[in-house]
Amino acid sequence: MTNSKIIKIIQQEFLANKDSELLGIIFFGSRVKFNKKDIDKNSDFDIGILYERKIPILNLPENWDVFLWSKKKWERGFALQVELAKYAKILYDPDLIIKKKFEFIKENILPHWLAYIKKF
User: What is the CATH number of the domain that holds 48?
Assistant: First the structure.
């Protein structure tokens, strides 16, 4: 499945969710992190969706693992964002919300992350 197809499917689903606004789409997981030849053809699609207002009810393909993050949660931050900033692919981010968070993480958190992890 192409990146543009993923975007199109999600955008169509948001058209049916009038009380929710699509702010961003992130593609991550093994299908992004590894070479295509090393990916199991049955591997799922890990998709992160950033939204505002009401939690959307989405009817998406069964082989998608979907993570929904409100704008408020995204801005507060969470540990998975550090990993996402390293290798996730931004598919849709018209207001650069995702890009700005990833840039902040790459500049201010990742340089210190390994030292932090070693403490545990």
Answer: 3.30.460
